Amino acid sequence: MCLGCGRHLWPKRSAGRSVRTSAGTARLRRRYLSCPRCRTAGYPLDARLGLAGCVSPPAPRRLCLAGARWSFDRAAAHRKEFCGLSVCDNTIRRACQDHGRAPRDGQRDAPAAAAAFRAADGGVEFQTDGTAVNTAGGGGRCG
Ligand SMILES: [Zn+2]
């Protein structure tokens, strides 16, 4: 049923898709449906299964856990070693960034969330990532 107008959706074609799960990569075959009236179209099975990216719904939690503990490339290597599942460092990075978006948006959009910080005494501090600081000994330490 079309969510836009309530008419029946027409099947147009089927297409495969790979999804990384905790048990490995699953290959799905699902139908692409289209509404002849309002032109709404897509793969309803993806929404029903909660698939928004290339990983299954429980996977982002585990990817974030690994990404919060280690660098993204090291987290990918540990996942491979511990679970036998290959996930590239950019998939872990994307999962962490997507997951971090909700609290960031909440802090930005809810005035009460930052009120105590704005009212506090002292200088402003910040955190950053992806930087290198040169030291007197000539080496750099990545933050
Ligand atoms: Zn429709």
Domain unit count: 2
C-alpha termini separation: 51 Å
**Total helical elements:** 5
Strand-residue proportion: 15-25%
Pattern of helices and strands: EEEHHHHHEE
What do these coordinates show?
- It is flat, with a radius of gyration of 22 Å.
- The model has no long low-confidence stretch (mean pLDDT 85).
- It has helices at 44-49, 59-69, 72-83, 89-109, 111-119; strands at 10-21, 24-34, 41-42, 132-134, 140-142.
- By secondary structure, it is an alpha+beta fold.
- The longest helix has 21 residues, at 89-109.
- The protein has two domains: 1-54, no CATH class; 58-108.
- The protein has a three-stranded antiparallel β-sheet.
- The chain is built from five helices and five strands.
- The structure holds zinc ion (ZN).
- Zinc ion (ZN) binds at residues 2, 4-5, 7, 35, 37-38, 40.
Salient structural properties:
single chain; 143 residues; alpha+beta; 2 domains; three-stranded antiparallel sheet; two-stranded antiparallel ribbon; binds zinc ion
Secondary structure blueprint with pairings:
Layout: E1 10-21, E2 24-34, E3 41-42, H1 44-49, H2 59-69, H3 72-83, H4 89-109, H5 111-119, E4 132-134, E5 140-142
Antiparallel strand pairs: 1-2, 2-3, 4-5
The structure holds zinc ion.
